[in-house]
Amino acid sequence: MTFLIQPCRQPALICFVIAVFLLQFTATANAQWQQKSFQTLGTQAYIELWTEDSKQAEQLINDVQAEFERINQLMSPYIASSELSLLNREAAKKPVQVSAEMYQLLQRARQISQQSNGAFDITFASVGFYYDYRNHKKPDETVRQTARQYVNYQSVELLKNNTVRFAQPGVKIDLGGIAKGYAVERSIALLAQHGISNALLTAGGDTRLLGDKRGKPWLVAIKHPRQDDKYAAQLPLENSAISTSGDYERYFIEDGVRYHHILDPKTGQSATGLLSVTVTGADTTQTDALSTTLFVLGLKQGMALIEQIDGYDAIFITAERQMHFSSGLSQP
Ligand code: ADP
Ligand code: MG
């Protein structure tokens, strides 16, 4: 450092180069990976970022946690004051105005419903509401058959001025299939705005990578759906999103049947045929919603859908424990 304040007898350009080199050297000496695990949106989250300023890192990690909590307050079905709860209470009686942010996420959910012919449907909650996986509860046959009739994304009417109305009583919505990915994407944007260029953020099964791991790709593991301590695969990734939906996250088994948290809107019962689906692509909101969607669609229809979506790929693990890769991942 003393060198920098001495008059330089070299040509100006060389002095500048030496000064920049020294500055970079001191900065690199302080730079490091900062990490933190935290609980949010009913799941475990983890953040890792590279910074040359540990104070800034601490602040940014707090900001990310606050952003998750803000989204939780807006979209949680368990918080009575959330906009989502307000919709579930009021929107069948009268049009309800929500924030532009909520309205836009409802629009994105609707697009994925249209794209998937209703496999992704936030009104799954009309019947999903009767399941309680922790307490091993499920609706009986008559309740399920009645509630199932209220599952239809078209019943969520998106009107003018961020106003929403449900077409009939009995309709309930839940953003559990998209909100976590949205929160991850928003948080990564926040880090990028503050000059961070290398980070990993993961919440439950939704992960977003910003840049690479400084000179090498991030290695993201896909859990083995039946063996907790094993990976089914590892993917080297940079600057992209990856989400996994599995039948092993929230479930209970009764009489040999696995009741898990991804419901087929057609039946109001847990989707069958796959153990997990992983989706990669640019945007975590999209990979989150698509992994849930493909899980419902199953291998054949799910593969057909993902092949149509530019920049997105998938890995399916079937009930027969076979892995299937979409074309973007199977090319050498
Ligand atoms: P996780 O929440 O474990 O990351 P997913 O991203 O696969 O898992 O999302 C599962 C969640 O999506 C469920 O807990 C529920 O809130 C919601 N969900 C379940 N079935 C559907 C469906 N058919 N369409 C939209 N959302 C769904
Ligand atoms: Mg999902």
* CATH architecture field of the domain at 95-166: Orthogonal Bundle
Terminal Cα span: 49 Å
Number of helices: 10
Strand content: 25-35%
Q: What is the succession of H and E elements?
A: HHEEHHEHHHEEHEEEEEEEEEEHEEH
**From the alpha-carbon coordinates, what is the Rg to the nearest angstrom?**
23 Å
Structure write-up:
- The chain is α+β, with helices and mostly antiparallel strands and 332 residues long.
- It has a domain at 95-166: Orthogonal Bundle (T-fold), CATH 1.10.3980.
- Helices cover 38% and strands 26% of the residues.
- The protein has helices at residues 2-5, 12-30, 54-75, 83-90, 100-115, 125-128, 141-148, 179-193, 284-308, 327-330, and strands spanning 32-40, 43-51, 96-97, 156-158, 163-166, 199-203, 206-210, 218-223, 231-237, 241-246, 251-254, 257-260, 263-264, 269-270, 274-281, 313-318, 323-325.
- An eight-stranded antiparallel sheet has the order 1-2-6-7-10-15-16-17.
- A hairpin with a 2-residue loop joins strand 6 (199-203) and strand 7.
- Helix 5 packs parallel to helix 9 and helix 8 (179-193) crosses helix 9.
- The longest helix is centred in the last third of the chain and has 25 residues, at 284-308.
- The chain binds adenosine-5'-diphosphate and magnesium ion.
- Adenosine-5'-diphosphate (ADP) binds next to helix 9.
Gist of the model:
Belongs to the ApbE family. The protein is an alpha+beta fold.
